[in-house]
Amino acid sequence: QALLYSRIYFEFFLMLNNNFVTQLLTLPEIFKDNFFYIPDYQRGYAWEKKQVEDLLTDIRHLMLDESAIRHYTGTLVLSPIENDKKSFQIVDGQQRLTTLVIILKCISQYLDDNTKDKFTELYIKRGSIGNQKNILTLNSDTRTFFEKVVMHDGNTEHCPISLESHERLLEVRKTVSIWLKEIQDQGVLIQDVLYV
Predict the structure, then answer these.
(1) I need a labelling partner for 32 at 20 to 30 A (CA). Which of 13, 67, 80, 135 fits?
(2) What does the alpha-carbon distance between residue 75 and residue 73 come to, in Å, rounded to a whole number?
């Protein structure tokens, strides 16, 4: 139930036949059954630590303010991939969505196995074992590093940092991990972040 609840909303623009369809959707509504691809023409990951910390601060404020009905997180502009109703190229919003996926991956490490499996299937990977597919696929410059390091264990031994965007992606993982540890030390159950 917690996996389908969220007060974090995106303004969701979907480009269809040169027209925009606009909706305000939560993270679970955006992710459910969909796959996202950052095309190669998009720049590599560029958010700096301050932008990540600002997003984490917003999430923390939302956790503390139970009266807040929703938090507008940003805009996500998607273009459907031809012949695949559930796959989309990200036209705008890739930095924020990538950051949120890293946050979600870090949160998953605190969950019990049953919840973690459902959570992972909603936000990280889905498909049968051996045929799992990442829900978010980055552009070719950062894809391998993102999948083998950032979304795995953070170890750069088998996939060294070779681009500034790699450094930034790894910094997000480190920043989020520290933030989760800090709020846990303050008595917050990491599972409570799921109710944001």
Answers:
(1) 67
(2) 7
Do the Cβ atoms of 193 and 7 come closer than 8 Å?
no
Q: Strand, coil or helix: what is 178?
A: helix
Can you read off the two tokens belonging to residue 49?
């630590």
How would residue 3 be classed by pLDDT, with cut points 50, 70 and 90?
Answer: very low
H/E segment holding residue 80: strand 71-81
pTM as predicted: 0.90
In the structure encoding, which two tokens stand for residue 61, read together? Answer: 């404020």
Both tokens assigned to 196: 């944001």
Most confident range (mean pLDDT) of 7-11, 62-66, 176-180 is: 176-180
CA distance 60 to 150: 22
Structure tokens at 54: 């600002």
